[in-house]
Amino acid sequence: MEVRRMAGMVFQHPNPFPTMSIYDNVLAGYKLNGIKLNKEKKDEIVQNSLQSVTLWNEVKDSMNKRGSFLSGGQQQRLCIARALALKPEVLLMDEPTSALDSISTNKIEELLLELRKHYTMLVVTHNMSQAARISDNSMFMYLGELVEHDNTKQMFTKPKNRRTEEYLTGVFG
Amino acid sequence: MNTPDENKDATSIARIKEKYLDKLHEDFTFLSDMVLNQMTKALELMYDNHKKNLVKLLKDNEKIIDSLDLTIKEKVINAIMLFTPRASDLRRLMAYYDMTICMERIGDLIDNIRHMLFAMDFSLPGFETYRKQLDDMFVHAGKMLKSALSTFSGMDEMLAHETIMMDDTADNMERKIEHGRPGSGFQWKSTGFAGLVNIMYVNSIAYYLERISDKAVDIAESAIYLIEGKDIRHTKLPEQ
Question: How high is the ipTM of this complex?
Fold first, then answer.
């Protein structure tokens, strides 16, 4: 459980708690873990978390609206803010942009590039270009087996393993 | 994991891409043959520098080289747009792009040589020796170019390293022409102004041939990038 708390998780489809306000969504981790905070601390966490996902300016006047009121891209950023609120050591993201349009995807990718300065992130993606754009290191997994891992530039230009080469050049998918 | 149908789609896209890259390779091979042929024809011109049909052929071929340069570069850009290449595909396309730039430049250098040769008078006293030296340089540069291109088609990195090492000889040959005095009695005083102009042409041709050798080195380096994924430009070669 302790280890689990060190990891923030973001999933394929944005999943803000539908009945909670934007404000409460950010603090959901604390609430679910029974951690009590004073109003001032709560406000600080909400503002910092939303600022770090560049959502603050877009929602600061609608804190009491439900999370589902936001667009898909905004909802996903809210989910990332929710994960960040608990100050995790690692962020695990499972296809965080696969359900988003290209503009929202760009925003999330920009956000990931910013967040990687402060967090270790593990992102699962089938989008090869995205993996090449946003990551420092890449792992190629196939049917549950780790085929190759290396620094991203190396792996995308000169992979060592034949299966990685074949996957990257589209011989199989 | 993909379904078998999705894998079939991936394979068919891979086939389209392969066809596209094969066509690109054909264009590049054609460009290579044209440039090598230009080298041979320019060498012929040195021994008969007013042969009109040879001059015309060189001019016409230069136009074809320029147009192939545009075609290949456009195809490379299209391939990047259409197939988002990675790994060996990406290296291959970058190699085509870089090498095409080199080949076009070699075409220009040969064209400059054609201009110089056309204006030269090898019958002036002492210039026979220069002709022999330029002939040697032509043969050496041609050998380097052929070897660099074989590196690419044969995926042979040892040959690429050998090509790079041949560059010192080309540099020395140029220096010898530029600074040295030919052994067999060149008497510039008796040849007068025409002789001085000729000397300038000789120096320029030697310079252009040395540049062609440099371009062959660039091609060999691109081939090494394709084969090994290493960019060895501006690095020292390992000891032999």
Answer: 0.70
Angstrom distance (rounded) from CA A114 to CA A76: 16
pLDDT tens for each residue of B191-234: 678 888 888 999 999 999 999 999 999 999 999 999 988 888 87
Whether A169 sits inside 8 A of B85 (CB atoms) is yes
Which residues of A fall within a CB distance of 8 Å from B13?
170
Give me the residues paired with residue A7 across strands: A90
CB pairs under 8 A between A and B: 50
The domain containing residue A11 runs over which residues? 2-126
**Nearest in space to A54 (alpha carbons), one of A86, A25, A78:** A78
- Which CATH number goes with the domain that contains A93? 3.40.50.300
Q: Do A143 and B90 touch (CB under 8 A)?
A: no
In this predicted model, what pLDDT tens digit does every residue of A32-82 receive, in sequence order? 989 999 999 999 999 999 999 999 999 999 999 999 899 999 999 999 999
For the domain spanning B4-228, the CATH number is: 1.20.58.220
